[in-house]
Amino acid sequence: TRPRSPEYQYMTMTQEEINFTNAFNDNRPTLALFSKCTTRDELHIVRDAFFIGMSSQLCTQVYESLRESMITDDVSYTAIANSINTPQGLESMITAARASDQWVDVLASLDKISTAVNSDLDGIWSVLEDGRLQWLRALNSAHPLKIILKDALKKDEKSAARDVMESKMIYIYTLSLSIPALKEASEAWTGVAKMVDKTNPLKEYNAEFWDPRKDEWRSLDLGVQAAAEGGGSSFNDAWEA
User: Fold this and answer.
1) 221: phi > 0 → left, psi -120 to 50 → alpha, else beta; which?
2) Whole-angstrom Cα distance, residue 11 to residue 141?
């Protein structure tokens, strides 16, 4: 059977589903900010900004009540006004929204609407948040070794493309150690590369055993790339950072 076109899918959707889909698509830029976050608190600011954006289109009455409460509260209004066009602008707005008595109503209304169209906004967000935090843990854990690898490449005037590739392989392996889903793949590669210390791939390192053509390496490589994508990034971005 031929895949159904987007136009056909829209024709079979209820008006509520269409409204929800349109609101979700309109707020994707806010949702995408998760890839810039470096802490759980920053992630939750983006999450709540996304929820506010959705509510402004789907449950306008409670959203307007929230907006009015933020404007009429002197403390909230001053904090928001003083942070306009600053890096703290979004955080100030979310802090004011959370402090409002209307915040709970906004979340409850949005949850009711999403449930009615068989969507799980909390679940969608959890996947993004967990993916980002997992990737950040991997980056932080592997960072000291990446510094060693890149410094060695800079100091070696004769370093070639092969040296860069080998350094990237070592970095990929080290990243995998912090990704639970890659536990078996990293352990398999430990055996293939004949490591004497799985936490220190440079110890008695032998380049002959680090062959990217091995099936075991493909699983590890693709797994790390998938984890990077799940964290809103890419392996190349991590290596170049």
Assistant:
1) alpha
2) 49
Q: Which residues of 29-48 are buried (b: 16+ CB within 10 A; e: fewer)?
A: ebbebbbebeeeebbebbbb
Q: For residue range 220-234, what is the model confidence (pLDDT) as tens digits?
A: 999 999 999 999 999
Check: CB of residue 51 under 8 Å from CB of residue 106: yes
User: Is the CB of residue 182 less than 8 Å from the CB of residue 228?
Assistant: no
Do residues 43 and 37 touch, judged by C-beta distance below 8 A? yes
Contact (Cβ atoms closer than 8 angstroms) between residue 98 and residue 66: no
The pLDDT of residue 12 is 82
CA distances from 21 to 9, 26, 31, 50, 114 (A): 11, 9, 14, 14, 10
CA angle 166, 171, 175 (to 5 degrees): 150
CB 197 within 8 A of CB 155: no
Whole-number Å distance between alpha carbons of 16 and 37: 32
CA distance 55 to 19: 11
- Cα 105 vs. chain centroid, distance in angstroms? 27
Say which DSSP state 110 is in: H
From residue 19, alpha-carbon distances to 16, 46, 58, 59, 115 in Å are 5, 22, 7, 11, 14
- pLDDT score recorded for residue 158: 83
CA dist., res. 5 & res. 20, Å (int): 19
The pTM for the full model equals 0.89
Number of neighbours of residue 137 by Cβ within 10 angstroms: 14
Q: Which two tokens stand for residue 48?
A: 């709540």
